[in-house]
Amino acid sequence: MRFQSRTAGISTPARLRPDRDALRVSACPACGSLFWKNCGRLPELRQTFGGLPVEVTLESGDLLHCSECDMYFREPYVSQSVLNGLYARLPATVWACDNPRPYWPQVLELMLRYSPNRTVMDVGCFSGSFLEWLPGSWRKLGIEPSAAARTIARDKGFWVCGSLDELVELSEHVGVMVLCDVLEHVVNPVAMLSILAGKLSPGGSLIVLTGATDTVPWRLFGCDYWYCSLPEHVSFLSRRWFQWAAIKLGMSIRWVRYLSSEPTSTAEWSRGLVRATAYTLARRLIRKGVSPGVVNKVPLLGRAARWTSPPWWRAAKDHVLIVLSTT
Ligand SMILES: [Zn+2]
What we know:
Number of domains: 3
CATH topology of the largest domain: Rossmann fold
Number of strands: 13
Distance between the termini: 26 Å
CATH architecture of the largest domain: 3-Layer(aba) Sandwich
Bound molecules: zinc ion
Helix content: 25-40%
Radius of gyration: 20 Å
CATH superfamily of the largest domain: Vaccinia Virus protein VP39
CATH class of the largest domain: Alpha Beta
Number of helices: 11
C-alpha cells in the first residue's frame, strides 16, 4: 500500500497557530483541506510497533481534526511507506487470532445480504483466520502486508497478495471486501477504499469496522483516548466521514451500527470507564498547569498520573460497522 506522504506537494500554509504549530505545513490526508483544528498532543509512544521494538523513531505527534471531511489524524508522523515497511516485517504471531472475534457472525450476515456473489476479500487478512472461519461456499481472497502471515494464509489455500498494487494481478471481480480494524492503520483511507472499490463486482460492497470518533468515549476523552495512543493507528473516522467518502467513491451507505469490538461484563466496562476518566483527568490537570505533586496526592488521580500510556478500554462502544455498496 503506497500513498503519498501527507505533507508532499503542499505549498500553502494551513491555519498555523504560532504557539503549537510552528512552521509545520499540513493538509488533511483524505481530502487535502488545510482547515483543521489541533486537538492536542497524543500520548508518548513506547517505540514499539505491533508490540515489537522498532528501529525508526516514532514521535507521537498531535491529533488534528479536519473540518471538511471530519477525519481525525496523527500529525506529524512517519509516512505510509515507512509504515508499510514495518507491517511487512511483522512476524505471524503478532495478530494471530485463535478464537472467532465477537463481530464475525454479524459480518457474515452482512456479507450474505450485500454481496452479489460468493467471492470475498479480507483486506488485512493476516494469517487467514477469518477466511478460515467462513463457510466453504465462499471463494476466499486476501491482502496482507506481513510476509510471514501471508505465507501462512496462502498455505491454507487462499489467494493472497501483499499490497494494493498487486491487486492488478487479480483478474476476477469481488462481491464483498471486508476491512476489520484496517482503515485506522492507513494514512489515506479514501484512497485505499477507491482502489478496492475498483475491484468490486457491480452491486458489490465494502464492509468496514473501525474506531468511531462520533461515539461518547471519543467525545469524552479525545486525544487522551487509548485508541489513538497505539503507534499503528493514524486515521480516525466517523459516520460523517463515511458519508463524505461514499460521495467521493460514488457509493452509498447501506447499513450502520455502533458497537464494542470486545463486549464484556458490565463490571469490566465500568472499570474501564473509571480508569480512562482518571487518566484523562490527571493528564488534563497537569496540562493546565496543576502541579504533578498536587495531582499525585489525589488517591485515584495520583495513580493514573503515573501511567505511561492510556488504559485500554476495549469494552467501550467506540467502533462503527458500516456497509458501503456500489450503486
Ligand atoms: Zn479532510
